[in-house]
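Appendix B. Extra example for self-study. Work through it before the problem class; the solution is given directly after the inputs so you can check yourself.
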Amino acid sequence: MELPPLSLYVHLPWCVRKCPYCDFNSHAVKGELPGDEYVNALILDLEKELPLVWGRPVHSVFFGGGTPSLFSAAQIDTLLCAMRGLLRLSPDAEVTLEANPGTIEHDSFSAYRNAGVNRISLGVQSFDESHLADLGRIHGAQEIEQSVASIKRSGIDNFNIDLMFALPGQSLKSALRDVRTAIACNPTHISRYQLTIEPNTAFHANPPVLPDDDLAWKMQQQGGRLLSEAGFDQYEISAWSRAGFQCRHNVNYWRYGDFLGIGAGAHGKVTIPSENAVRRRIRQRHPVDWMKAVTHGSGLAEDRKLDAGERVFEFFLNQLRLREGVLKNQLEPRTGVAWGAVSERVRRAVDKGLLREDNTRLTPTELGWRFSNEVQALFLP
Ligand code: SF4
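Solution. Structure tokens for the complete assembly:
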């Protein structure tokens, strides 16, 4: 096995309130945000991870959540200063901050830029007031406009808009209007996800009426066409970018690169070539429990080596989300498993029209992208 590129994910787990569809590790803030305490715990967590990655350059940092923009620019600055001191953070590293409109009152995006953030991912979801209300979002169209204007004033020229479609009661016209409005904001990247009802959410307990599969498919197809016509390239199932603006951090995940994950509930994956192993490390989920645990010892809930079947499954699960697919000569360096061990499963997927194979690459067909669950099932351990 060989060392792949390394990224750093930082989980900031609080939100103003919990959205009814959300199954992320996010928690409504009760009282004052324990921001400084949490930042100190993150630095401690990172220090404890260092022996696993000594000397390796870090190509990207992603502050995800939750709502990272609830943390002040000074707190993000403290974290980035600590990272520069502890890690070999590349001078041109991509540093993304997730932000939600309506949560940046305390600091403008210029202040985050001065701290070292050079990419924003804005959780817009929809521009329609009634859909935003149904989704339990705290913002309206006006806050989106203000956030986009603040990003542009800050000089951060690389920003993503997150959109959702197939919302309760949504029409095709409304879904396409959201795509057109997002394009008009002139972002470098748009991520577009279909709303799905996940277990352990308020929507699961009280399901809203969603558009049927045919209508959702039309929203997906026609929205995709609008994005292509506007010059965005669909490089992953849900991700569209202008040339040169793919999310480097996420591309590293999808190529089965390594990542440290610090903060409550964060996942990490680190390759150890000398042991022919990949280690999965997962933190305790609850922020208060995690802060206590990391201060007095380890905040880990799980730390184990993946077996060969899991490594192969994760490798294909991630890479086949990308239009570029899988470079066949990367399987062995990234998983320790030779191509011959999967060739029969690959042949079955090719026979079904889900994948296309040539001498060097395996790529998903349009059918394979549409039925990605079926493709993934073929590589289950
Ligand atoms: S803002 Fe995002 S992370 Fe927070 S509850 Fe809503 S969907 Fe979840």
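Self-check: The pocket of iron/sulfur cluster is lined by residues 15, 18-19, 22, 24, 26, 65-67, 100, 123 (CB under 6 Å). If your reasoning did not lead you there, revisit section 3.
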